Amino acid sequence: MNTEFSYPNVGRQSIFSKGHYLVCNFSYRYLACKPVDKPNDPFLKPSQMDLRVCATYGEQFLNNLHEWKNEQNIISHLYSYIKGESVYALHNDERALIPYIAKELEAGNLLIFPLDEPRSVYSSPTSYELEQSAKQKAASSNIPIINAQALNNEVANATPKPRANTAPSAAQILASENKNNKSNNSTIKPPLTMAEVQARMQAATEAVAIARSTGAPLPTSPYTLADKLDIVEQGLDEKYIVRIIESEYATDEGTVGWVNPQTKQSTYWTTTYSQLEYADKDPELITSAVGIPYNKAADYTLLVIDADKAATEGDMKTFIPTYNNLTDFAKADLEDTPADVITACMTPQYSKDYEALVKVAKADGVNLKDKDEFSEFSRDMQLTEADEDIFRARHRIDRKYGANEQFQGNGLTRNTDPVTGKISQGMVETFSQDKNPQTLKYLEDNNILVRIAL
């Protein structure tokens, strides 16, 4: 086949073959070869780690090769190459060979290397990027599979059109048709005082109580996906943010988030009050809305924080954690990590590789927090020195800031329906760095925070 890459003996049909070139449905080119046949090319991109998670992903990849841009009978060629046969055996039904090849991909006996340059990076994923990353969500049986096509269509149809570079008010940014309002002509406005927060929370409590007593559907967010993406695009402009924690950590001496004993600083994830308002004081609704597991045995406390006061009277910075925003923050905060490495690890393309690596590590019982186990795992995954540096930087961002393998980078949480288990785009999330964390009692006494038992 024609390609600008020409590695020795790749594409031959004999015992001297060093692999084969592949072209996927999107016309992206790949090199398929055994670990022993990997070219000595320092610029070769790392192999597709997602294919190591389970054979299903390998089958999806092979079933979606381009119909006419590959060599004729390419599946049979791959099969013969793996088996080490000098003359390939043309199979009557090449599809029957795919499960075997996929198992070899899962076992790491066959590697797939991308040859094309990555797509351009935007602050929120495109439909293509969501489709690709959606394939990584179900590495274990207890994690629901995202309906990738439905999610892609939802995002594609909801993405707001670019608007002029103006500075709209908070009310204009958050204005959206309130589906729960019968008059259908009001707008959503963020609360301006803590008293208003508590009054609106009581109204939401009554709405949930009525729904539960009558068997009616529970209230859902009045924000459309387009509304939420619009807020992300325009930036954070809301006074009150909220965070749910288990009550055992909400004592007078507790803090909003975990305080690093070395840096004496704290970072944590929150959301704006208006995003969570519909969930009232129901801990199960709130935990599912913000994308964290609900512990039936635990009591919960909701922290309502005046972000303006926390910023002026304390030393707290809050922003919407998109790829761009968190990348800029990490570059300023992680002084011993090269800026280009941080940039490389904070993209939609690398996110799927990181998620796959983490899932393989968990399946193998590898503790990535241990330096020796981390290095040994990187060698087992055949990561180059540069790839290991990128992996280490991404893992550090995961550990230090909580941007784990489920971090989407588009400013929205990964929402889980508590009844169906369906995963979708959730609410706008916010990230806070507190350089001078104080106790909850101190914050409450100084009218910066209110604790609400759920």
Please summarize what this structure is:
With 454 residues, this protein is an alpha+beta fold. Helices cover 37% and strands 13% of the residues. It starts with 19 loop residues before the first strand and ends with a strand.
Strand content: 5-15%
Going by helix content, strand content and strand pairing, the class is alpha+beta
Instruction: Flag low-confidence runs.
Output: 119-186
Q: Which geometry do the CA atoms define?
A: elongated
Question: Radius of gyration over alpha carbons?
Answer: 25 Å
Largest sheet, if any? 7 strands, antiparallel
Number of helices: 17
Number of strands: 10
**What is the succession of H and E elements?**
EEHHHEHHHHHEEHHEHEHHHHHEEHE
Percent of residues in helices comes to 25-40%
Mean pLDDT: 78
State the distance separating the first and last CA atoms: 64 Å
Chart the SSEs and their pairings.
Blueprint (H helix, E strand, L loop, with lengths): L19 E4 L5 E5 L21 H9 L10 H10 L14 H10 L3 E4 L12 H8 L13 H11 L11 H5 L19 H21 L10 H10 L5 E7 L19 E7 H4 L6 H8 L9 E7 H7 L2 E4 L3 H11 L5 H7 L2 H16 L7 H10 L4 H17 L10 E5 L6 E12 L5 H6 L3 E5 L1
Antiparallel strand pairs: 1-2, 2-3, 4-5, 4-6, 5-9, 6-10, 7-9, 8-9
Helix pairs in contact: 1-3, 2-3, 4-5, 4-14, 5-8, 13-16
Task: Please explain how this structure is put together.
- By secondary structure, the chain is α+β, with helices and mostly antiparallel strands.
- It is 37% helix and 13% strand.
- The chain has helices at residues 55-63, 74-83, 98-107, 127-134, 148-158, 170-174, 194-214, 225-234, 273-276, 283-290, 307-313, 323-333, 339-345, 348-363, 371-380, 385-401, 440-445; strands at residues 20-23, 29-33, 111-114, 240-246, 266-272, 300-306, 316-319, 412-416, 423-434, 449-453.
- Strands 4, 5, 6, 7, 8, 9 and 10 form a seven-stranded antiparallel beta sheet that branches. Strands 1-2-3 form a three-stranded antiparallel beta sheet, covered by helices on one side.
- Strand 8 (412-416) and strand 9 (423-434) form a beta hairpin.
- The chain is elongated and about 75 Å long.
